[in-house]
């Protein structure tokens, strides 16, 4: 039995050796495959966590943009309201009306002559128009005090002297109120839209830099330096180069001062000229349809933004948003970043931020997104607020859309009644709390896509020219980064629709994350 077993083993020893080799190779191959699968699963998990972290930072950044706009918008609103004091004109009209009524209470022959010279219909129209302004308009308490004190001084002089400011006729005052009310509301819409875009660019550029700084700190090997060291403020400092330079960030954000104080006034002048040209011949007592008002509003927009697609694409908004280089030091002084005696040039890091911001503002994508934001803002003002408050058209809904179309086609309202709504809505547009217009603007999907392009583009340009961390920086490229190319690609996809443009932004997130982790992945391998 034992001898036969030995013979059988001797005859099949080759087969046993081959089988053992096959089993061993299979075991090793299986372990290798399991290791690779586990490594790929861990990499996918890390990438998913990293992308979610990037998305969370991005969404938080957009919320910060909203709060920032609400915080600084009242500054521009105050300057625009001060430049176009509609309430002062209203006070002058009310004072003239009171003087006419005081004169009509005199002797019977004077009263009869006043009645004959002023038709009852005109008097009633003025009374209704002024009443609508009193009930629907918004007047600051300081303006009420100024107008009341001014009227008291004039009344004390008992008609022997009249104020030089009351020399304007009633027609002139109504025309001035018409132009000022409409121009003020339109200017605030432009200012709000431009401020929203500028803030998105600024905070997303800084958010990108701060995000990259955290990635670089994670990818870098732990430092063996002592815990106490000297501070390095040179430009080759990696922390400062990646956006942790608090002073550079403060100076960069302070450039919004230009739009809040200078740019908004330039926009005001341009919008006022367009409103005068379009609405100049319109009588405040005239009744017009909502469709006619929409057409006039569109004419104003064409004169401000451009009548054709090519004119809108070539319209330059940079001068309203950022100062020229020779005025940058002036802006820093006015915003409190530097003193009157200091004259420090922009640091390379600040210069890079300002140059990239200028490229973004001059890109076609910026103009495309701005047009969409203005469409949403003007639609809320004209098609919703004016239609509801002035023309008494019920709000639009899926069930009442046809009813509103029928009612709105025949509905008419006096221009003076619409002016009261324009006056009140101007304060709502410039409000720093519960701003419906900002909500409507931020609901435009392409705004988020544009912000995603800004946040995820040009990661490689944030690296210093000479450092030990390689982020795929191509030295053959220009030292001045430009996101305009990426923004132009985004605008091409945005024309398809908001959903398609946001898909492009999603892929931008993935490529940006891959670039940012290039060094870390190389070390793991």
Automatic annotation (TrEMBL):
It holds the Pfam family Peroxin-3. Residues 147-159 have a biased composition (Low complexity). Residues 101-129, 144-169, 470-497 are annotated as: Disordered. Signal peptide: none annotated. InterPro entries: Peroxin-3. One of its GO terms (cellular component) is peroxisomal membrane. Coiled coil: none annotated. One of its GO terms (biological process) is protein import into peroxisome membrane. It comes from the Eukaryota. GO terms for molecular function: protein-macromolecule adaptor activity. Residues 110-120 have a biased composition (Polar residues). PANTHER family: PEROXISOMAL BIOGENESIS FACTOR 3 (PTHR28080:SF1). This is Peroxin-3.
